[in-house]
Amino acid sequence: MTAPMLSVRDLRLAFGEGPEARTVLHGVSLAVARGQAFGLVGESGSGKTTVLRCLAGQYHHWQGEVAIAGEAYRGERSRAHARRAQMVFQDPYGSLHPRHTVRTALAEPLHVHGLDRVDERIDEALHQVGLPLHFRFRYPHQISGGQRQRVAIARALILQPPLLLLDEPTSALDVSVQAEILNLLADLRERQGLTYLLVSHDLGVVAHLCDSLAVMQQGRIVETLSSDALCRGEARHAYTQALVAASHA
């Protein structure tokens, strides 16, 4: 049996200590096969982005067992981890330095990891996300929101990680641009065999991009099902059914 690309068992996280401690993740467990796109859905505050932040190394004090590409992960932000998993954030403008050109943004991880062929790799990354090569000289304020998100995706892919952690990657974009970015992500996954863990409050986005999903409520996974089952109306948990009903309202 091939190990899953991502395995999470009994992930727990609390903020504060003693009687003041507030638990935000209550034993979250999930497995994402290699090449699969898996969604985490739920209302704001359900804990879905917190899971991503634990996996990306933004929170270190969680408990549980995590393995990425068969390697145990304990919350460190190491070079090895950066080569295994990268995160794409909700707001592309906030995740790109306003005074750095696109070239600088894409070159930084290459320099940190001591990789060669910097300009060639930047050209390849821009081509992968459908941006013309002259965009390397532009600043974030000189390009549209959708183009900024393409740059953010290119930056995440430039180290060639097998796993992308996608935090609401289209929610800050216009509806017409959302579809472009979702189609780009679907194409990249198919061409490069990528694995995605996608966080979204939008069931339509998850159904479009993901094979399976887990529904989170108050820091717990209450249901896991395939996107096909979701679309067929086969959700069993009352909270999932309420999310589906709200998405159709």
UniProtKB/TrEMBL annotation:
Tell me the SMART domains matching this sequence: AAA
Q: Which top-level enzyme class is recorded in the Swiss-Prot or TrEMBL entry?
A: translocase
* Protein's cellular compartments: Cell inner membrane; Membrane
According to its UniProt record, where is this protein mainly located?
membrane
Outline the extent of the ABC transporter domain: 6-243
Q: What name does this protein carry?
A: Glutathione import ATP-binding protein GsiA
- How does it sit in the bilayer? Peripheral membrane protein
Q: Which PANTHER family match?
A: GLUTATHIONE IMPORT ATP-BINDING PROTEIN GSIA, TRANSPORT ATP-BINDING PROTEIN
Per the entry, what this protein does is: Part of the ABC transporter complex GsiABCD involved in glutathione import. Responsible for energy coupling to the transport system.
One example of the protein's molecular function in GO is:
ATP binding
Record note on quaternary structure = The complex is composed of two ATP-binding proteins (GsiA), two transmembrane proteins (GsiC and GsiD) and a solute-binding protein (GsiB).
Family stated for the protein in its record? Belongs to the ABC transporter superfamily. Glutathione importer (TC 3.A.1.5.11) family.
Pfam families, from UniProt? ABC_tran (PF00005)
Taxonomy of the source species:
Bacteria, Pseudomonadati, Pseudomonadota, Betaproteobacteria, Burkholderiales
Keywords for this protein: ATP-binding, Cell inner membrane, Cell membrane, Membrane, Nucleotide-binding, Translocase, Transport
- Enzyme Commission no: 7.4.2.10
Q: Which domain of life is it from?
A: Bacteria
Report the catalytic activity.
glutathione(out) + ATP + H2O = glutathione(in) + ADP + phosphate + H(+)
